[in-house]
């Protein structure tokens, strides 16, 4: 454990973390809570009963280790917001149409959170670290008289791209959603289509949400970024200049538990399925760097017909594979196809996980040599930390921008050829089996191009680990963040004393 950050006589700060109840947003916030607590900071992690149950083993381990993390469970107001009971996480929503109701429910947590933070036994909050989607937490910070820091859950490359796309007249004037356009104001040449651009002007509701987020950004004290200077220094600097505020790059935060055993990594974010735990044992029998791991995150839905194409492509590639199918993607038709020959024909070479996969533990295994990913920011960082090159298959949000970073800037990825943004797949097949096979073969290629890609990924992973070590760039940024919050509170108390 790192030495606690010297406070130089300052009161130990109290960070209140408010993650979005979505796995891709909650998991890194849990990691941040541990990183802060290991530096001697008091942390309150705001959650709900269903979400707390998912990370129960993590909570128990933090308590057993005596870390100063309090997990504050607030009742999630499903009924008041018009949600079915128990829909406390984005991946539990039965329909995307309920997304507005889900965000309404999140907003209703404002008063209960304020009440709990004002309880006499609670140490005074020093700051609120809030997910970007929780616009209402600015009001909480204002009521408490503390700074609000935004956690975006992605890197500065996509954040800067999104801001520049928004302000580009060129994107406004083009009506063709499929025409590649260059993102202005970047040190690298990056092209993306208007149809792939996240949060672009599409409808009044999207426009309203974007404007509200920009307003909240302007009011915040700064930004916490799960990234590291050595990977995107030019974009960190460019983003800070664009927003006129400090962005503390403190990642990759998934490395907080790099020395933990496999059993700890296996429960990161949720309880692993039986398939997931058996998979780790199966990987022990497979040759190093030979396995393709295919997983597409916790939110995007892949249809049975597209799953068949993925499965056939993986099989035809002749590489061993681990393939994750989410519970809500399982269907009688897909199970029938799996049972009618696929499982038998790939026995010993393929492993299908139905349920939550212990992704960090899988990627860290020496048998894994490539990762087919939806390009969520966490998955990209986890691949980099494990030194595993990626096959990019983006769906929505900033994932197409993450793909450009992995493929065009860092040179550690191969594009699967997905051209259209989509949240939910219908029966349409986005990538056919032949293209899956071809791109997997390219990813796993042992020739000069493939070896160079693996070398770059490994070197970047080493830089990530050094950034998190004592005296590393991310370690120092965490020190600066803690001291910034501590000094801010000293100044506020001093001012209040003078005014009194």
Could you walk me through the main structural features you see in this protein, from its secondary elements to its overall organization?
The protein has 500 residues and is of the alpha/beta class. 47% of the residues lie in helices and 13% in strands. Helix 14 (304-317) runs parallel beside helix 15 and helix 14 packs across helix 19 (433-443). It has a seven-stranded parallel beta sheet. A six-stranded parallel beta sheet has the order 12-11-10-13-14-15, sandwiched between helices. It starts with 13 loop residues before the first strand and ends with a helix.
Q: Structural class, please?
A: alpha/beta
Helix content: 40-55%
Averaged pLDDT, please?
Answer: 89
The multimeric state of the shown protein is single chain
Q: How many domains make up the 3D coordinates?
A: 2
Distance between the termini: 42 Å
Number of strands: 15
CATH architecture of the largest domain: 3-Layer(aba) Sandwich
Helix count, DSSP H or I runs of 4 or more residues: 21
CATH homolog superfamily of the largest domain: Glycogen Phosphorylase B
Strand order of the largest sheet: 3-2-1-4-5-8-9
Report the major sheet. Answer: 7 strands, parallel
β-sheet strand percentage: 5-15%
CATH fold name of the largest domain, please?
Rossmann fold
The first-level CATH class of the largest domain is given as Alpha Beta
Radius of gyration: 22 Å
Instruction: Give the overall form.
Output: globular
Low-confidence runs = 1-6
């Amino acid at each position: 454990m790192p030495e606690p950050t010297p406070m130089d006589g300052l009161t130990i700060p109290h960070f209140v973390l408010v993650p979005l109840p979505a796995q891709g947003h909650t998991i890194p916030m849990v990691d941040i809570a541990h990183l802060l607590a290991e530096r001697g900071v008091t942390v309150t992690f705001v959650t709900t009963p269903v979400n707390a149950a998912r990370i129960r083993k993590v909570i128990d381990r933090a308590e057993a280790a005596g870390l100063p993390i309090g997990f504050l469970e607030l009742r999630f107001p499903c009924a008041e917001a018009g949600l079915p009971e128990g829909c406390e996480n984005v991946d539990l929503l039965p329909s995307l149409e309920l997304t507005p109701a889900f965000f309404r429910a999140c907003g209703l947590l404002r008063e209960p959170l304020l009440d709990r933070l004002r309880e006499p036994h609670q140490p005074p909050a020093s700051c609120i670290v809030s997910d970007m989607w929780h616009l209402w937490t600015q009001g909480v910070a204002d009521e408490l008289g503390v700074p609000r820091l935004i956690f975006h859950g992605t890197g500065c490359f996509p954040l800067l791209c999104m801001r520049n796309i928004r302000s580009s007249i060129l994107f406004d004037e083009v009506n063709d959603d499929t025409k590649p356009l260059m993102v202005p104001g970047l040190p690298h040449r990056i092209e993306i289509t208007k149809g792939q651009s996240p949060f672009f002007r599409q409808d009044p509701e999207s426009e309203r949400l974007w404007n509200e987020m920009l307003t909240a950004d302007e009011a915040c004290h700064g930004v916490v970024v799960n990234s590291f200077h050595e990977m995107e220094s030019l974009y960190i600097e460019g983003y800070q200049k664009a927003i006129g505020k400090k962005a503390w790059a403190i990642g990759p935060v998934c490395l907080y538990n790099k020395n933990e055993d496999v059993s700890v990594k296996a429960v990161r974010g949720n309880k692993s399925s039986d398939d997931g735990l058996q998979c780790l044992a199966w990987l022990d029998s497979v040759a190093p760097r030979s396995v393709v791991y295919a997983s597409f995150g916790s939110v995007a839905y892949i249809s049975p017909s597209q799953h068949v194409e993925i499965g056939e492509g993986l099989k035809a590639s002749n590489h061993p594979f681990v393939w994750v199918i989410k519970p809500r993607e399982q269907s009688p038709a897909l199970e029938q196809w799996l049972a009618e020959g696929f499982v038998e024909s790939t026995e010993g070479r393929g492993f299908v996980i139905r349920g939550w996969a212990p992704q960090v533990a899988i990627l860290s295994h020496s048998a894994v040599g490539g990762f087919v990913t939806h390009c969520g920011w966490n998955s990209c960082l986890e691949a980099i930390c494990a030194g595993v090159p990626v096959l990019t298959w983006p769906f929505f949000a900033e994932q197409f921008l993450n793909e450009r970073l992995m493929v065009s800037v860092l040179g550690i990825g191969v594009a699967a050829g997905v051209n259209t943004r989509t949240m939910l797949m219908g029966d349409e097949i986005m990538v056919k089996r032949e293209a899956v096979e071809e791109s997997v073969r390219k990813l796993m290629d042992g020739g000069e191009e493939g070896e160079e890609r693996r070398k770059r990924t490994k070197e970047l992973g080493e830089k990530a680990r050094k950034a998190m070590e004592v005296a590393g760039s991310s370690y120092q940024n965490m020190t600066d963040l803690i001291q910034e919050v501590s000094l801010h509170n000293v100044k506020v108390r001093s001012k209040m004393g003078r005014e009194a």
